[in-house]
Amino acid sequence: MSDSSALARHIDEVALIDQHVHGCWLSAGERPRFENALNEANTEPLADFDSGFDSQLGFSVRNHCAPALGLPRHVDPQVYWDRRSELGEVEVARLFLRAAGVSDWLVDTGIGNATADVATLSELSGGRAFEVVRLEQVAERAAQAPGDYASAFKEILRSRMTTAVGTKSILAYRGGFEGDLTEPPASQVAEAAARWRDQGSTRLHDRVLLRFGLHQALRLGKPLQLHVGFGDRDCELHKSNPLYLLDFLRHSGNTPIVLLHCYPYEREAGYLAQAFNNVYLDCGLSVNYLGARGPAFIARLLEMAPFRKILYSSDGFGPAELHFLGAALWRNGIHRVLGGFVDSGDWSEADAIRVVDLMAHGNAARIYRLAGRTD
Amino acid sequence: MSDSSALARHIDEVALIDQHVHGCWLSAGERPRFENALNEANTEPLADFDSGFDSQLGFSVRNHCAPALGLPRHVDPQVYWDRRSELGEVEVARLFLRAAGVSDWLVDTGIGNATADVATLSELSGGRAFEVVRLEQVAERAAQAPGDYASAFKEILRSRMTTAVGTKSILAYRGGFEGDLTEPPASQVAEAAARWRDQGSTRLHDRVLLRFGLHQALRLGKPLQLHVGFGDRDCELHKSNPLYLLDFLRHSGNTPIVLLHCYPYEREAGYLAQAFNNVYLDCGLSVNYLGARGPAFIARLLEMAPFRKILYSSDGFGPAELHFLGAALWRNGIHRVLGGFVDSGDWSEADAIRVVDLMAHGNAARIYRLAGRTD
Amino acid sequence: MSDSSALARHIDEVALIDQHVHGCWLSAGERPRFENALNEANTEPLADFDSGFDSQLGFSVRNHCAPALGLPRHVDPQVYWDRRSELGEVEVARLFLRAAGVSDWLVDTGIGNATADVATLSELSGGRAFEVVRLEQVAERAAQAPGDYASAFKEILRSRMTTAVGTKSILAYRGGFEGDLTEPPASQVAEAAARWRDQGSTRLHDRVLLRFGLHQALRLGKPLQLHVGFGDRDCELHKSNPLYLLDFLRHSGNTPIVLLHCYPYEREAGYLAQAFNNVYLDCGLSVNYLGARGPAFIARLLEMAPFRKILYSSDGFGPAELHFLGAALWRNGIHRVLGGFVDSGDWSEADAIRVVDLMAHGNAARIYRLAGRTD
């Protein structure tokens, strides 16, 4: 496929809904902060012999982000670092957020107090921004509220969901998906909450309360996002295989459930998206970290999953390079994959353009009901 | 590789043994029946916002099946639907079965009373057709028969196997492969059968009786097919990883065991095909659903599995498009994969042609002993 | 990428450190010995209907090894067999070891008394060779030694590690990675050792003693190699998913841990290499067996793993073809993968050349501290 094809032009220009993202940095940091932010899985500082630049993500930053800062592609890491330091974190954020071609940011506010909030992301990017509420954060606040835990949880959630467009759970980091995920009875919730409050209501690991939160979210009808697969090493990756969700999904009703990141379980996630009318999947985080290997990942998302069930996100957090790079690598990857399908005669170009629209914004606009909303 | 190469011509013309297939529809249905039949995993009707045409399989129907009905490739779904309605289900079946280039159909008769039986498939296609007996169906009939369950099972199986060429188990749908799969003692079988009969002999989930059936099949010496991986959501997909079969396979003797479908466990299945002289794998169902991504799947089948252990099937069921499409997508995928090996110099063209013959029919003819048989 | 590119020339000429290999045969054998050696997973002789040549590895032998013996590529198996018989096993070994372009061989001496030892590998190849000590072998010798088991284990290990460069464990073959891998208390070790000695100290399966050995190796600071994934069918492949090592790795300190082979868990292994400063992965065994599908595997190694954490090995054992073929297929695969990254503009050629050096020898030289060592 030539780069001047209608498909190539369309991919280049299509507006994206980034359906799962976090805040970007607003204040200056040292180079180690930046390099560590190019490694998702490691929770410790990178070893002395290592560099965050020597990875697919690091190479992609030098390839795709450098030109956005007026530098040549594949520029030396030191030159790149000097340039972003010179611009300052806010200007870097403004440049990258605007270059991403994103119309709407759906922001998980559950982490990163030191990063841009929803309103700031909107202002810096010139796009709309909406909140996604993290259930484990609601739980922590309910534990600190006076009175009955369940009532407090419901009230906090209800209140935040008047403006928020969806919920998010990091159950994958709190023991994973294996085991019972049915709704617990009220008496068990009360007991578990009392126990947790006695223990100081720190980081929530109690399965009863985690299950309670999931089922409260299902009742809302707004999309429930689940962290799946790739993340930092606190995640029990082998227990976050989404196939462990089979029973939960069989009883999840009509509320859209969005499987995030998915790597290396994207084939399993795609299967679930075919198996359940309310299951979706996205490519966030993974596409950034895979860099030059991103097209192969995007191709796998396009296996078993019906085309009306696939979403875009960057999962950007920290350096605004990640908010931009998600979009740049997605456009690049979709171009190669769908262009390949068209070149081989498997797909028509018109179909490819239509599927781009579904994945870029159509599916997300439908399930988050963004049309006509104001942020 | 040019399409006029000897390899391309050979792939185009080679006769296939479809070693695992079901009946096709013979009577007219509405469009929702057809669209739902383009989604394997979902057991509910497709959601209103969805369409079975917006998937790799749906795009493949429009690309490969449309020309067989005299329509342009990538034709509009409505035009396609109108054309197949106009022809009628039996004429559609005749057209697609004959266009598949299949010499022998090995038919799992365990589902679909409303579809073509073995003799009708033979007649409509102009090829030979043989039965594969589903063990769980034998169990259900044995439960309904008078007298000792084990004796009834053996007698029904013996009788049907006088003409049938193999057996099939859907253990993956009945709890999966994890756990003990040794042969149970006769006393346990009798107890389990009594319990099941008391419960009304509905859908078999009893592990003792499932294990009994598997070991009866092993004794026959004829190939035993196992559903592995991809299927509908009643399947416990995480428990149908074929690696859970390791202990069973270690004690399975010489009876050929064929791992069907395999996705997303095709690498594990290929490993088992290398590890055990009696283990085989095939590509059925998966190749249809992967559409434009089928070549990548076929390439993975050609990793650890020895070339004398890989088989072809479509697993077609319902719309006869699936019986044809399996063959069309297999030819297309094998062409791209082996053509790529030849182009890169990794394989000689003569080797590629020989391996095509093994996979298309040679291996199946050997293990099912089809040479000289009459259907 | 043209084959005359700087990258192609560099890959062709770069010296490799084969960081995990075994001895090669030195004495003549019959053709079945050779064909069985082309199947890793099967522990029984190949079936009559099968041939070790009809596999990706078999095709690769005919493609890459035949020219090294003065034969045309894709030569007939019988001609190949006649030629290697005519040369004799030692001359075959000398030819292939020298043709591999390997500067250093790190030799696991835990199997194969009938194959070349460390000194012979060095002499035949003209390169350096160092020992890697297998922990389960140390355990067996400690069980046979008089007195306290733990003391004997430590003394044998200490003594062998004065010259050896690393250790190796085959825990994957002794129950796998699932379950508790913490260091056992001394009293439990003494009890377990007494029990094992009473039972005759045959093949070690006791988890307490296996865990004891791992933690002794961690204390040494020299790299600890772990068999992961693909191997023969005695391996509990589903229990050798390296994600089961998460807890062990979280408490493994700074000792380099090298995940060997990895297939089909290379994505999981790459994730761990990103998540832990001390985790590495390699491609040994897998690249040989994947043949024409090796480039796809090598590409997957280059996903989540930082580039300073990826190593080369052949895992050659038996026919010296395997010691050579690992290198030939690695060069071929790296060329296609990195050449593809450069052609698509994702990587610069200079970066690709630098990453080749890291993987070929730089990373291994660093962690095994080979610079300036004498063998």
Can you give keywords for this protein?
homotrimer, 375 residues, alpha/beta, TIM Barrel, 2 domains, eight-stranded parallel beta sheet, 8 strands, 47% helix, Amidohydrolase-related domain-containing protein (chains A, B, C), Amidohydro-rel (chains A, B, C), Metal_Hydrolase (chains A, B, C), hydrolase activity (chains A, B, C)
Distance separating the two termini of chain A: 38 Å
Largest interface: A-B, 35 and 34 residues
Inertia-based shape of chain A: globular
Give me the number of helical elements of chain A. Answer: 16
The CATH topology annotation of the largest domain in chain A reads as TIM Barrel
CATH superfamily of the largest domain in chain A: Metal-dependent hydrolases
Q: Which CATH C-level class of the largest domain in chain A is it?
A: Alpha Beta
Oligomer state of the chains in this structure: homotrimer
Order of helices and strands of chain A: HEHHHHEHEHHEHHEHEHEHHEHH
Question: What does the radius of gyration of chain A come to?
Answer: 20 Å
Number of strands of chain A: 8
Q: Specify the structural class of chain A.
A: alpha/beta
Examine the secondary-structure arrangement and name the CATH architecture of the largest domain in chain A.
Alpha-Beta Barrel
Q: How do the strands line up in the largest sheet of chain A?
A: 1-2-3-4-5-6-7-8
Task: Show unreliable segments of chain A.
Answer: none
Helix content range of the residues of chain A, please?
40-55%
Describe the largest sheet of chain A. Answer: 8 strands, parallel
